[in-house]
Design a protein that fits this description.
The protein has about 170 residues and is mainly alpha-helical. The protein contains eight helices and two strands.
């Protein structure tokens, strides 16, 4: 027969966590930075706030820009209104901020959406029979997926844009 202590430890669902070797270590989360410019200038030994201040970025945009309130002067004393004007920041821009501004000025790359051949044929048939009447397209019996008039309108416009860009051939 087993003793009382052994029975008690079997019933206990939670193991003894204070035993040597079972002390949980604080896992440091891996920071994934997708921007190449920022990741190149990121120091892993510093905190987020320290890294952002070294790069020249703000962690809290509300605190970084001071807004001064003043009354706008007009010819009529009764028509005074409050105007918010940001105070000009005297911080010099860093090389990282300049690189980010150049990237922002270039713009982002737009991806083209692939339109399935079956959907192209379906929309082409609907447009041939109904023209631009999207409500009639929505009520058509060939609309098996019961797409709404707005959905069909959006899909037809995307199809026409893809045809004009020579992505899809009808």
């Amino acid at each position: 027969m087993t003793g009382v202590r052994r029975k008690k430890t079997r019933r206990n669902k939670r193991p003894n966590t204070t035993a040597p070797g079972r002390v949980l270590k604080k896992k440091q989360t891996k920071l994934n930075i997708s921007n190449k410019v920022i990741s190149k200038n990121w120091d892993k030994k510093k905190t987020l706030n320290e890294n952002f201040s070294n790069i020249g970025l703000a962690t809290n945009s509300n605190k970084s820009i001071k807004i001064r309130r003043r009354l706008a002067r007009s010819s009529h004393a009764l028509e005074e209104m409050d105007v918010d004007q940001p105070v000009e920041s005297s911080k010099p821009t860093t090389k990282v901020v300049q690189e980010l501004e150049i990237m922002a000025a270039q713009g982002s790359h737009t991806t083209r959406r692939h339109i399935a051949p079956g959907e192209v044929a379906f929309l082409k048939d609907l447009m041939d029979s109904h023209g631009c009447d999207y409500k009639a397209m929505a009520r058509d019996k060939r609309n098996l997926y019961q797409q709404t008039a707005k959905e069909l309108e959006r899909k037809c416009k995307n199809l026409m844009k893809a045809v004009s860009d020579r992505v899809v051939q009808i």
